Here is the input.
Amino acid sequence: MSLYHYIVIGIVFFIVVGLLARRLIQNYYEKELFEANETLVNFHVEEVEIIYKQMRGWRHDYKNHIQAMKAYLELDQLQELESYLGELDEDLVSVDTIIKSGNVMVDAVLNSKLTLAQTREVTLHAKAHVPEKITVQDVDLGIILGNLLSNAIEGCQTVEDTEKRFIRVYIHDMKGQLYINITNTMEREIKKTGSEILTTKRGKDHGFGLKRVDRTVEKYDGYINRQFEEGVFATEITLPL
Here is the structure.
């Protein structure tokens, strides 16, 4: 067997390992979410179904990729195999997780919520980095991010023109604080009563998510600011590290 054959086999091996690693990471994220209180992280059935369908797709694709690569090797069609690997590499990049912040809970909530947003034709701009050691509990981060992103997705759904729908997420450590900024488009009427934000949304859950966020931020003596201007709603939060 030539050196080229060994190189090809090595590439195939690393791709297979990468596929398996991705599957394990997805399972880990899902396990972390369900071990937390489901009502706290606001993890909806629709999001679970999306993740499940993605995992089923990966399982199906994994088998097909292995069979195709084995066929190329058996037929000694190395050039075709190389081309196939190149296409597979591009595909792996395109379906990579949206966010890798360094915090399992943050990644789990963000990836599930933002994946849901994508299915609803929302353009995403997301960047997140969370220090390894922080004082904020993971469940509390789930409360904040889960509710803010649920509201952002609902806000975007009020925008009829799908090209104008967007959600921006920025999370980073800044001067001893964890800074969180979530911005989204919205064409819903906003009213403010004292420190409370009211919308045209009705029902028993009206404003409940926002109040939970407020209580959680207050728990850590953090800072929260909300702004709504020209069809864009923004929430800015800082929490002590």
In short: Confidence is low (pLDDT under 50) at residues 35-42, 202-206.
